[in-house]
Design a protein that fits this description.
The chain is of the alpha/beta class. Helix content is about 35%, strand content about 20%. The longest helix is centred in the middle third of the chain and has 14 residues. The mean pLDDT is about 90.
Length: about 300
């Protein structure tokens, strides 16, 4: 399913009149991504940036044909309703861009996605990019170049800067995906590691993580027999702060997905990588240098 997500071309923008959606229309279309329709309640029958707008997802599909992916840009408290509407209409790939989606809403969506074979990226996802081919979301395409390094990003928008460092060093990327900043996510590190393990265009994998972001270090889910070189970068490695206490609903939702204890500080993440015998770069330049060694 995720390989389809990388290659598809028919995109719906839910919440097309929201500021978040309007900032990504031009970059996505300029990169060759086909945004075929938008949904915005009360604006049906109009056009925005030459894109037809509908009140309902079903109306959009009836007008333009089956849609592969919906990029959801509605306010956080409306994400669950919008995503469930897209799933009910038969869309099987969703990118949830808004931050601060209620964790229990995300958990509801994940359960529905599993029952319907739907791929969800996010919440809080900046999307994904196949350099020189395809862009979904708000990643900055000028930072990326075509190549053989797969990037799985779980940071608060540090991925663009890392990709730029690699591009400047002559190291291109096969696919870069931003998992999101939500406490609970749809697709996770294991899903994309499995994809990159079988992707012939990917020769090495970079895992990007951040201090206090995420409840479980990617190192704890890397298969011991993973067939390609992996290098990690953990932002905030020298910060000593402990993870803040979550509100009750977040704590309950997280424990349904991730068993405690968490590994959310940079120190814990680095320790987990070392235990898995994965190298952790301390600077973007060191990351680039190590990749040049293994490629």
């Amino acid at each position: 399913m995720m390989l389809k997500m990388i290659n598809n071309r028919k995109i719906l923008l839910q919440g097309i009149h929201e500021p978040l959606a309007q900032t990504i229309i031009a970059p996505m279309r300029g990169y060759g991504t086909e945004v075929v329709a938008g949904v915005s309640v009360g604006h049906g029958g109009t056009r925005l940036a030459e894109i037809p707008v509908f009140d309902l997802v079903e109306q959009a599909i009836a007008a333009v044909g089956q849609i592969d992916t919906s990029v959801v840009c509605v306010p956080p408290d409306q994400v669950a309703d919008a995503a469930l509407e897209a799933i009910a209409a038969g869309i099987r790939q969703l990118v949830l861009m808004p931050h601060h989606v209620p964790p229990l809403d995300t958990l509801t969506l994940i359960n529905r996605a599993k029952a319907t074979g739907t791929v969800i990226l996010g919440a809080g996802s900046a999307g994904l990019i196949v350099p020189d081919q395809f862009l979904l979301g708000s990643l900055d395409p000028q930072c990326y170049s075509a190549g053989s390094v797969g990037i799985i990003d779980r940071t608060n928008r540090i991925g663009d800067a890392i990709a730029w460092e690699l591009t400047q060093a002559g190291i291109g990327q096969s696919v870069a995906v931003h998992l999101g900043t939500g406490t609970i996510l749809g697709t996770t590190f294991p899903d994309w590691l499995n994809l990159f393990a079988h992707n012939e265009d990917t020769q090495a994998v970079v895992l990007l993580e951040q201090h206090l972001l995420g409840n479980k270090a990617a190192a704890t889910v890397i298969p011991p027999d993973f067939p390609k070189p992996i290098i990690a970068y953990v932002a905030g490695q020298h910060l000593p702060f402990q993870a803040p206490i979550s509100d009750a609903s977040t704590s309950i939702a997280v424990q349904k997905v991730h068993p405690l204890p968490h590994t959310s500080t940079a120190t814990e993440k680095v320790a987990a990588y070392k235990a898995a015998k994965i190298r952790v770069a301390t600077t973007p330049k060191q990351l680039a240098d190590w990749l040049q060694e293994v490629l």
